[in-house]
Model the fold of this input.
Amino acid sequence: MKLFAPSTAPDLDLVDIHGQPIAIGRGRRTLLSFFRDAACPFCNFRIYELTAHQQSLAALGLDIVAVFSSSREEVLRFVARHPRPFRLAADPTGASHARYGIERSFWRKLRAIVLRVPTLIRGLRLVGWAGLNTNNLMPADFLIDEQGRIVEAYYGSDAGDRIPLERVELFLARGLLHRMLARQRVPRAA
Done:
């Protein structure tokens, strides 16, 4: 079942690829991204984009957690072969994907292959021909605030559809404004 904002983000029983437990929304704003398998060309292209923007996003207070429906070994082979400045997790049983209501669709996967050819080609350059044999999971992104509440749930309309980075930046800007206003509030005298 899909999740909607505002709601509490379900806890994840995951560890990252280095064996460290993953906690979501514990004092930091988080982009929780669910990916198809580690060889997915669309997924690898998005990881490339997040890697390129991570420094500026982290400076604004964002943690990124990427969860793949693959084994740890596959994540290491396709995604983590280059150092990534954010947490990567393997969810080979699909339990975390199911908990967040991630959908499956062969037709929406096919739609992405037809409509997103430039992204597909760029992603295939990253993963090779293995990227043509991927599962039918659809992507999803969740913006989670410091208290662990889902502020925005974004379920991809096809295999290459991700939350626009501009919406992530807006989420961060609102968080900065909220913190700044909270610091400026002066307690009232009784």
Summary: The chain has six helices and six strands. The longest helix spans residues 165-184. The longest strand covers residues 29-35.
